[in-house]
Automatic annotation (TrEMBL):
Protein name per its UniProtKB record: LexA repressor
Reaction catalyzed: Hydrolysis of Ala-|-Gly bond in repressor LexA
Native organism: Candidatus Desantisbacteria bacterium CG_4_10_14_0_8_um_filter_48_22
UniProt entry tagged with the keyword Transcription: yes
GO biological process: DNA repair; DNA replication; negative regulation of DNA-templated transcription; proteolysis; SOS response
Length: 212
């Protein structure tokens, strides 16, 4: 880095990071203007150019919303910390490597303080409303840690049933069956036999990232 940041520059850098995490893309000059009550987008541009000169961001002048942090992520206050790119898995199939090339749809930048072993972590986009009472909504991304032996104490997991991935709380019943409990009072639990080859726990959910 080529210079210390002013308080305002730190705030803007943190806003870029937060917007990228929440929305999946960087804010525009107009977004920054509105956030910090600047009189015009030109004030936003001046701060962005200063951040670029100091080496904290990169941008493509020919593309909109192209701001990118050069030092990974920040902690939301403009203080640099590193991030790790987690693969977004579009399809999870039993008996097939999760990270097979044909399954990867992209990547998601996640603060590495949330991820201890990136090689064992993947992201999956939630479809449906079965976990809304747990704060997991349709379209959210869940960060999933692969595990060979699942826990049965109510952890929220990604589990495959007949090739379809679903997010549920996992419990083990006295008769040996698994109970997949939705967090939606309008839905009923699913009971499955863990010995069934069509049932496979892909991993435990560690983090939920909302896209707005």
């Amino acid at each position: 880095m080529n210079g210390e940041l002013t308080k305002r520059q730190k705030e803007i850098l943190g806003f870029i990071e937060q917007s990228t995490t929440d929305c999946g893309y960087a804010p525009s000059y107009l977004d920054i203007q509105k956030k910090f009550s600047f009189k015009s987008p030109n004030a936003s541009k001046d701060h962005i150019l200063a951040l670029e000169r100091k080496g904290y961001i990169k941008r493509d002048p020919h593309k909109s919303r192209s701001l990118r942090l050069t030092n990974g992520k920040t902690n939301g206050n403009g203080n640099g910390v590193s991030a790790v790119n987690i693969p977004i898995v579009g399809r999870v199939a039993a008996g097939e490597p999760i990270f097979a090339v044909q399954n990867i749809e992209g990547s998601l930048a996640v603060d590495n303080s949330f991820v201890k072993n990136p090689q064992d972590v993947f992201a999956l986009r939630v479809k449906g409303n079965s976990m809304i009472d747990a704060g997991i909504f349709n379209g959210d991304y869940v960060i999933v840690h692969k595990q060979e032996v699942p826990d049965y104490n109510g952890d929220t997991v990604v589990i495959l049933i007949d090739g379809e991935a679903t997010v549920k709380r996992l419990y083990k019943e006295k008769d040996g069956r698994l109970r997949l409990q939705p967090a939606n009072e309008s839905m009923q639990p699913i009971f499955v036999n863990p010995a069934d080859k069509q049932v496979w726990v892909a991993g435990k959910i560690k983090l939920v990232i909302r896209k707005i």
